[in-house]
């Protein structure tokens, strides 16, 4: 707030006064304090390497932008990056070494990027680390967030209006003019968002097999995907993590939007470098934590820069273009109501038994119960991952299917009941249990005379389309044609 | 107010958002998704006409917009397939099977495949129990010069390199 007031005073007759760190050329290497689970990301080697490669991809593209290599952006630069992505590095790479001119010229934005990327790696390490109890993990995440926020170049954890931040005259220039390289950026951001639900409250032994599915989607589909209307959002790709850590989810969305803004400004034809650099400084200031000090999630002092509203059910995401309460447009899925099951459209239970999520075909959706998860996955081509609650609060069931919908479980004794009934109560009659004994105990206590199913029998069921399902039919807000996708 | 003023000074003008009041209200439509191949919306069954093309692959049941889309996308699936193709008879789909790579179906089945753009594929790439049924449908839909294809000819036509 103080920074904002200073800016207001300083900008009456000219450009805004920059915060001291943006005017400083002092050495600025900042790192998270060492912890024993440092580099736990390497427990999933393919994931670690793909993450390291995203840094290289960012750096190569930015250096090409700074050098004005626009005519070769979509071929030579694109091919260079793809070559790196197909043989990713074994260790983290210093982006500045790969983008010396960009880093010199845009040192402020580079600091913001580096520090937020460090938060990515720290939070991933915490979630991937074996041997941490849930409370230790929670404390470590909270500590990481505090440590991150202690730096002046930290991004705000408040939800920001994405409709506003992507609504400038130059917004979208990069994705329109350089769709292939933009697809790479959005694929990196897909990877950096989709991994959180893979890791969040799931047993470490499941992370590698889960990444076989996610990594294949990243390499075989996301890197080539030029039909996204908007960048991947944390709450879209990792809805459970975003619910648990909304500030961190928002900070990453704000980071990825800052990437888009820098790209768009560089790709704006005819913009003088000095004017572009000023706009980039403004873009940084818009999303800094210091620019929003004292402000509150869910509130809006205006409907642009200080619009911190979020879908009521989803505090880890700012309002999107066309958003109305919990209803938002999700690229590839259409309009969704974030407060209801993606499969049966029945509102989520407030119960801490959280239901399940389904990851397939590049999306991750929250659903009310394990049956909704299975049937939603069975409608979708390709492999799928289900993460589901069991009768034991700390024991997440992770199911991974092959292309034909045959499931494998992390819990060898997993059992299911699916007595059948109406969807508004599906969470009560469709359940997963860690063992046959636990399922039997539930059957006894519930007085339900229903069969207990093993994984094979359960996996062959399919109840088809829920009668409760309601599609929200509105035009795509990102396309003039009114295409509803 | 102060924050609004700051925003006004600091920032370039954003493009106005679409007014929410102009957006149409939600309408209840059952399980409407996109076709995995053409990415257009699936067409649902109605009381008078079946439209849902369902591909069965192991435990998966995946909906397509039309038969053309199924055949175009078939290489995605490595095993045997069963396709329930809507026919001219409501509730009586035609069952087509791909076993060890070879497609089979009822001998008398004829397929219409005469759409020009995917916006029309659900209506104009369809299976019928007989040639007579196909021709009646084509007459009702004013399809010029309808060409009833056998399953084999249809697959050959779809897979022919363009």
Brief write-up:
The complex is a heterodimer of chains A (485) and B (162). Helix content of chain A is 45%, strand content 8%.
Features:
heterodimer, A: 485 residues, alpha+beta, three-stranded antiparallel sheet, B: 162 residues, five-stranded antiparallel sheet, two-stranded antiparallel sheet, 7 strands, disordered N terminus
How would you characterize the overall build of this protein?
The complex is a heterodimer of chains A (485) and B (162). Chain A has 20 helices and 10 strands. Chain A is of the alpha+beta class and 485 residues long. Chain A has a 5-stranded antiparallel sheet, with helices on both faces. In chain A, strand 3 (356-360) and strand 4 (363-367) form a beta hairpin. In chain A, helix 3 runs antiparallel to helix 4 (73-86) and helix 11 (179-199) runs antiparallel to helix 12 (207-220). The two termini of chain A are 40 Å apart. Chain B has 162 residues and is α+β, with helices and mostly antiparallel strands. Helices cover 24% and strands 20% of the residues of chain B. Residues 1-30 of chain B have low confidence and may be disordered. The interface between A and B is large, with 59 and 45 residues.
Topology (SSEs and partners):
The complex is a heterodimer of chains A (485) and B (162).
Chain A: H1 2-10, H2 20-23, H3 45-66, H4 73-86, H5 95-98, H6 100-105, H7 107-128, H8 134-149, H9 162-165, H10 173-177, H11 179-199, H12 207-220, H13 234-237, H14 239-244, H15 246-266, H16 273-287, E1 327-330, E2 334-337, E3 356-360, E4 363-367, H17 370-378, E5 384-388, E6 397-401, E7 407-409, E8 415-418, H18 426-429, E9 430-433, H19 436-446, E10 452-453, H20 455-459
Antiparallel strand pairs in A: 1-2, 3-4, 3-5, 5-6, 6-7, 8-9, 8-10
Helix pairs in contact in A: 3-4, 3-11, 3-12, 7-8, 7-11, 7-15, 11-12, 15-16
Chain B: H1 2-10, E1 53-57, E2 60-64, H2 67-73, E3 81-85, E4 94-99, E5 102-104, E6 110-113, H3 121-124, E7 125-128, H4 131-140, H5 151-159
Antiparallel strand pairs in B: 1-2, 1-3, 3-4, 4-5, 6-7
């Amino acid at each position: 707030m103080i920074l904002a007031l200073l800016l207001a005073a300083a900008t009456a007759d000219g450009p805004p006064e920059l915060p001291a760190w943006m005017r400083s050329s002092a050495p600025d290497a900042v790192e998270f304090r060492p912890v024993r689970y440092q580099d736990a990301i390497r427990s999933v080697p393919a994931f670690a390497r793909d993450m390291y490669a995203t840094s290289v991809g960012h750096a190569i593209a930015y250096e090409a932008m700074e050098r004005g290599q626009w005519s070769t952006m979509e071929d030579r630069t694109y091919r260079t990056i793809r070559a790196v992505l197909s043989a990713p590095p074994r260790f983290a790479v210093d982006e500045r070494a790969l983008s010396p001119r960009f880093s010199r010229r845009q040192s402020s934005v580079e600091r913001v990027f580096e520090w937020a990327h460090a938060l990515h790696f720290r939070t991933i390490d915490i979630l991937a680390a074996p041997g941490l109890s849930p409370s230790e993990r929670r404390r470590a995440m909270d500590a990481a967030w505090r440590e991150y926020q202690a730096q002046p170049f930290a991004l705000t954890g408040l939800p920001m209006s994405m409709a506003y931040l992507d609504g400038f005259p130059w917004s979208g220039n990069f994705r329109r003019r350089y769709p292939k390289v933009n697809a790479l950026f959005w694929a990196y951001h897909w990877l950096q968002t989709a991994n959180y639900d893979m890791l969040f409250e799931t047993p470490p032994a499941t992370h590698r097999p889960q990444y076989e599915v996610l990594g294949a989607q990243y390499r075989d589909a996301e890197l080539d995907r030029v039909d996204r209307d908007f960048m991947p959002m944390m709450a879209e790709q990792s809805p459970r993590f975003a619910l648990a850590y909304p500030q961190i989810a928002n900070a990453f969305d704000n980071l990825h939007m800052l990437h888009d803004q820098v790209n768009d400004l560089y790709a704006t034809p005819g913009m003088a470098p000095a004017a572009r650099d000023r706009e980039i400084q403004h873009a940084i200031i818009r999303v800094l934590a210091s620019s929003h000090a004292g402000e509150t999630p869910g509130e809006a002092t205006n409907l642009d820069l200080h619009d911190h509203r979020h879908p009521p059910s989803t505090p880890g995401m700012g309002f999107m273009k066309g958003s109305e309460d919990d209803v938002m447009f999700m690229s590839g899925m259409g309009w969704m109501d974030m407060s209801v099951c993606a499969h049966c459209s029945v509102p989520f239970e407030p119960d801490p038994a959280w239901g399940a999520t389904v990851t397939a075909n590049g999306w991750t959706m929250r659903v009310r119960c394990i049956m909704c998860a299975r049937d939603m996955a069975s409608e979708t081509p390709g492999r799928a991952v289900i993460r589901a609650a069991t009768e034991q609060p700390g024991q997440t069931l992770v199911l991974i299917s092959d292309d034909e919908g045959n499931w494998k479980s992390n819990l060898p004794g997993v059992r299911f009941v699916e007595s059948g009934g109406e969807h508004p109560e599906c969470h009560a009659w469709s359940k997963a249990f860690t063992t046959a004994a636990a399922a039997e105990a539930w059957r006894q206590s519930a007085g339900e005379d229903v069969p207990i199913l093993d994984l094979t029998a359960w996996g062959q069921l399919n109840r088809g389309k829920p009668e409760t399902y309601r599609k929200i039919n509105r035009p795509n807000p990102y396309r003039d044609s009114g295409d509803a996708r | 107010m102060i924050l609004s003023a700051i925003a006004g000074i600091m920032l370039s003008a954003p493009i106005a958002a679409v007014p929410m009041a102009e957006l149409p209200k939600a309408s209840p439509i059952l399980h409407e998704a996109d076709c995995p191949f053409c990415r257009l919306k699936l067409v649902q069954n109605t009381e008078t006409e079946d439209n849902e093309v369902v591909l069965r692959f192991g435990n998966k049941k995946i909906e397509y917009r039309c038969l053309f889309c199924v055949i175009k996308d078939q290489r995605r699936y490595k095993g045997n397939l069963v396709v329930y193709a809507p026919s001219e008879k409501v509730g009586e789909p035609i069952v087509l099977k791909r076993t060890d790579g070879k497609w089979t179906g009822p001998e008398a089945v004829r397929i219409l495949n005469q759409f020009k753009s995917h916006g029309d594929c659900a209506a104009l790439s369809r299976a019928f129990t007989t040639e007579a049924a196909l021709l009646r449908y084509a007459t009702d839909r004013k399809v010029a010069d309808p060409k009833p294809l056998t399953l084999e000819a249809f697959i050959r036509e779809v897979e022919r390199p363009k």
